[in-house]
Every structure is written in C-alpha cells, then in structure tokens.
Fold this sequence. Notes:
The chain has a single domain (10-161), classed as Helix Hairpins (Orthogonal Bundle). Helix 1 (9-72) crosses helix 2 and helix 1 packs antiparallel against helix 3 (123-216). The chain is built from 3 helices and 2 strands; from the N terminus they run H-H-E-E-H. Strand 1 and strand 2 form a beta hairpin. It is mostly helical. A two-stranded antiparallel ribbon has the order 1-2.
Amino acid sequence: xxxxxxxxxxxxxxxxxxxxxxxxxxxxxxxxxxxxxxxxxxxxxxxxxxxxxxxxxxxxxxxxxxxxxxxxxxxxxxxxxxxxxxxxxxxxxxxxxxxxxxxxxxxxxxxxxxxxxxxxxxxxxxxxxxxxxxxxxxxxxxxxxxxxxxxxxxxxxxxxxxxxxxxxxxxxxxxxxxxxxxxxxxxxxxxxxxxxxxxxxxxxxxxxxxxxxxxxx
Length: 217
C-alpha cells in the first residue's frame, strides 16, 4: 500500500486523519460489541427460563393427554383432535438492539374457550386440549427468544470481525503509510539541508575568494 501512496505532507495529514477515524470507529464498535454481549447473556437467562416453562407445560399436557386417553378412550381423543384445528395468532414486529434486527413477538392472552363444542367431550379431554394450548404458546416463546439470541450472537461475531479488521489490517496499514511518508519526507529534508549547506559553502568560498582578490588589488 505504501508504494501506491504519494509521499507528500498532504498525504501525511490525510493518513493521520484516517488513522484517527479508524481508531475511533474501532472503539465505537468495541462498545457496541460489549453492549451486545451484555444483552446476549441477559437473553440466555430468558431462553433457559422459556425452555424450563416449555418443559413444565409439556409434562403437564402429555400427562393430561394420557389421562384423557385412559378415561375417554384413545379413539375419542384422536377423533376430537382431527375434528377441527385451532390456531394461535401472534403479533410479530422487528426491533433494533444496538443495530441488530431481532424479532419481537407479543403473545396474546390464551383464550379459555376451545375451537370445538364441548358437548359429548370428556372433561379430561377438555383439560388436555387446554394444556396443549399452553404448550403452543410456550413453543412460540422459546422460538422467539432463541431466534433473538441467535441474531444477537451473529451480531457479536460480525462486530468482532469488523473490530479485528480495523485493528489488525486497516490501522496497521495506515501506520505503515505514515511511516513510509515520514521516511520519504525526512530523506528529502536531509537532502535539501545537505544541498543548502553545499550552496552556502560555495557562496562563502566565492565571497572569500572575491574578498582576497580585492585585497590583492
């Protein structure tokens, strides 16, 4: 890169400005990375809590399902499951966490009414259906939390790569340019100083010779 840059004072000033900008950018990215890391570890707790909640409601739901099959018969439970499917609507938005786009999901309150008529349906089957609604909500919560966690993790990696590129490639390259320019300018200054000394010595010698000639006359 040093061979492609013009070794002038203007280029020196421009390179110093670039070094200052790159250093400032690296510091800002480090602060962003640290903030994302803090957010990441806070989300890890949320993700673990969501997983625990899913495990808990799943155990309860499957226990209710087995009980329903035992009391209301497997055929009754399975025919009810095939009768009509229910859905759970969610409100999903996108928010920015220190520049990283992550999903934000707002779960509605679980409806107590079921998507089918409870007539001729056993009480234990109704309980199992209600419990599996909770499982669906817990699954969505886990998916949202872990997706957010993954996105922030990717943001940390991306920011770290940019910091490393600045600190290990860009800034050292600029420093090499500055060192190259400074070396050329110093060499030119020494050569100019040597040239001026020679001119001065020549002028002094000529002046001395002229003075001697006048004295001889």
